[in-house]
Every structure is written in structure tokens, then in C-alpha cells.
Specification:
Blueprint (H helix, E strand, L loop, with lengths): L1 H8 L2 H6 L1 H12 L6 H16 L1 H9 L2 H10 L1 H5 L3 H17 L3 H5 L3 H12 L4 H17 L1 H9 L2 H9 L3
């Protein structure tokens, strides 16, 4: 609940510039025990921050939060949960990953497993926001890494992305 109050009043750039506030946010995400409102708010705030701050994206990588987000997207109990919190968490986790995948060096270090995870969400009927954010992450992965592009081709993921997201 406290994080909701911070989210309402905190401009995106303030969090990106304050390592102490960022560390508190990371603690909530790394120490997650349930898909609750605090986790949902923390991932949402992290996503808003990484959208505007290169420094925030660097901290996400430095403190292995990217791995936590991808792990959340891969956990069966999380992906089967259809509550509002779970949907918000998955959607924002995928978008936060997409923000980090803007860096080609990050994409080159990612594995084919990431393509599998994001493609699963891009094809799933869990919600439009999750599908779209997973597709954005996939597109950035494929754009910045030829090996991941090849994996996407093997899985016929380009056809999925084109059929669902290409302009008519």
C-alpha cells in the first residue's frame, strides 16, 4: 500500500536518480513471496523508471533484476494466475524487459530461452497488454541479436508477430 502512495507522487526521474529509493524497490521485487499489490506496484514503478532512465536500466542489469523479471514470466503458477495483480505484473515485467533490450549488448548476452518465454506470452490469450509487451521485447531481442532472430524464425515467431501486430 505504501508503494502505491509513492507511485502516485513520484515522478519517474526522481526514482531513477535516487539509488536508495531504487534499492528499496529492488528489495520488494527480489524478495517477492506472493503476487500482491506491492509487487505489482514495484514492477510498475520499475517499468516507468526504465522507460525514461538509462541509469535505471543499468541498475536493473547490475542487480540481476532482469533475471528476476524473466523468471517471473516463466513461472507456471504466475502465468496461470488470472488476477488483476498477476496480469499487471506480467505486463509490466515484459515491458521493463523490453526497455532493457534496447541495448544491443544486453540482447547479445540473452539466451534462446528468452525467445521461448516471450513468444509464449505474445501468443497467449492472457490479455492484450501482456501480448503486446512480450511482442515488443521479442522484436528488440531479434533486432539486436542474430542468434535470437534465428531462434524466433525456428519457432515461426516472425509469422506470429506479423499476423498479430503488423499494420493491415
Amino acid at each position: 500500500m505504501l508503494l502505491n502512495k509513492v507511485l502516485e507522487k513520484c515522478p519517474n526521474t526522481l526514482l531513477a536518480e535516487d539509488k536508495g529509493q531504487f534499492a528499496a524497490l529492488l528489495k520488494v521485487i527480489k524478495g517477492r513471496t506472493a503476487l500482491n499489490e506491492d509487487l505489482s506496484t514495484a514492477v510498475k514503478l520499475l517499468t516507468r523508471t526504465t522507460a525514461v532512465s538509462v541509469q535505471a536500466r543499468k541498475w536493473v542489469l547490475k542487480y540481476n533484476i532482469l533475471e528476476c523479471l524473466v523468471e517471473m514470466l516463466d513461472q507456471e503458477e504466475v502465468t496461470k494466475d488470472s488476477t488483476k495483480n498477476a496480469t499487471a505484473i506480467l505486463s509490466n515485467a515484459a515491458l521493463c524487459c523490453a526497455h532493457c533490450f534496447q541495448d544491443a549488448a544486453v540482447c547479445k548476452k540473452r539466451s534462446e530461452r528468452d525467445v521461448d518465454i516471450f513468444l509464449k506470452h505474445a501468443k497467449a490469450d492472457k490479455g492484450w497488454a501482456i501480448q503486446q509487451n512480450a511482442a515488443i521485447a521479442l522484436a528488440r531481442l531479434a533486432t539486436n541479436s542474430t542468434s535470437l532472430l534465428e531462434r524466433l524464425r525456428e519457432l515461426r515467431g516472425l509469422e506470429v508477430l506479423h499476423s498479430r501486430y503488423a499494420a493491415p
